[in-house]
Design goal:
Elements (H helix, E strand, L loop, with lengths): L24 H14 L24 E5 L2 E5 L2 H5 L2 H14 L2
Antiparallel strand pairs: 1-2
Length: 99
């Protein structure tokens, strides 16, 4: 275990998910500076830096809707995982309405 995880949401560029990425040095430095200013640590420098690719909609909302008899659901990436029970219940309710 290294300590804490610090990241910036939607701070990097849009990328091709099929291409290997690498951490943006400017972004890593900005996050390191923020940690140094806001969290009391002996040494705020990162032990490790990684990229994190994920999907999201433009307004960051989930897509949970009905299109005729078809139910469409996309919770988008890891953020949606945290809401799995609520998302599943909503999609189930939409599916039952179609019957």
């Amino acid at each position: 275990m290294h300590g804490i995880k610090a990241a910036a949401h939607r701070a990097g560029p849009e990328v091709d998910p099929w291409q290997a990425g690498s951490p943006d040095t400017t972004l890593v430095n900005a996050i390191t500076a923020w940690v140094g200013e806001h969290i009391s640590l002996a040494d705020p420098r990162p032990v490790e830096a990684q990229t994190c690719l994920y999907t999201t909609t433009a307004d960051e909302r989930f897509i949970l809707e009905r299109r005729g008899r078809v139910v469409v659901g996309s919770a988008c990436s890891g953020h949606g995982f945290k809401f799995a029970p609520a998302i599943g219940a909503r999609l189930a309710a939409l599916a039952i309405e179609a019957l």
